[in-house]
Amino acid sequence: GPYQIASKLKEEKVLIPSAYLARHGEGVNKNKTFKDVYGWGSSTICNILEKREYLGHTINFKTRKHFKDKKSHYVPEDEWTIFENTHDPIIDQQTFDLVQKIRGNVRRYPDGWGEAAPLTGLLYCADCGGKMYVHRTNNGKRISQYTCSQYTKVPCGTLCKTQHRINEDVVLSLVSEMLKAIAEYAKHDRAEFVRVVQEAQSSQQTTEVRKQRTRLATAKQRVSELEVLLCKIYEDNILGKLSDSRYATLDAQYEKEQTELTA
To answer: Is-above-0.85 flag for pTM?
Structure first.
């Protein structure tokens, strides 16, 4: 898994991404002094394994500024806009799909206490939308806590300002109480329970339609932008500002993207 991959990269003395960029004078940490330039973490490996850009695609609109705090927050994957084959891939689709399938079937293994975290992969941070993972501490007494995975990503606190730490037993207690309340409600008024569930499903479908309309509007806007770009590169080519080879490359790229958006 990611931990074993990270250990292997460290053993082979492969630079972590931020250290590699810094060594080449790039990135936000180019002037930083690293404690361990080979200190790979599991979260970094997970991000690399899930990154669709390595398939040769360009992914836009992964984040959106929230109207309350004006800060960027991650949005669900189905709201992304994906432009395929915009650059050379470094991994083929079959291998990428296999990796996602393997990672999607990850079992919840017992930890050092012989216990498995039942809610792993099911809890999400209310602020940034990142997954929350369980951490075990043992300072006098055993404590299991869920924390936001985005908080610990380098630079720490950039993607999410706080850990949003919550004890596992508190979450399990809340889930248990909610399930009991739902079961009791369904038992005493089944007809009303069915009605509420159907309304919730209808609301979800309405939300999905709204998302699709938003994606369509975004695609239409991009088509218009591409039309302007096509005219611009044509003019630049005529005026000698853009070489014929470069014009041909850009023209084919924009035409392909436009065709995919209008298909």
So the answer is: no
